[in-house]
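Narrative of accomplishments. A recurring question from our advisory board has been how the design workflow behaves on a single, concrete structure rather than in aggregate. To address it, we present the structure tokens for one chain from the evaluation set, followed by the sequence designed for it. No filtering or post-editing was applied between the two.
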């Protein structure tokens, strides 16, 4: 039986019924991810240039500051709302 006949009969698998994102949607998502990565890199560089005393005043812990200097962007709990 052809795929068309199966679809008309309602005999489709979930993989066939799930819509794949379109070309424009995939392009916009890649563009957004690229912009996000650039923004995070800029924030990391900006924060890494700050003195440790200023970072501590902003709420960064010693571990956060060490992670920042290691190239990892971690916001302090006071900003992210963690306890």
């Amino acid at each position: 039986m052809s795929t068309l006949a199966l679809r008309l009969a309602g005999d489709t698998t979930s993989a066939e019924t799930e819509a794949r994102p379109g070309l424009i949607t995939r392009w916009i998502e890649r563009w957004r991810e690229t912009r996000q990565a650039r923004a995070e890199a800029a924030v990391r560089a900006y924060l890494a240039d700050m003195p440790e005393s200023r970072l501590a005043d902003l709420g960064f812990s010693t571990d956060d500051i060490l992670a920042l200097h290691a190239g990892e962007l971690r916001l302090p709990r006071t900003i992210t709302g963690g306890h």
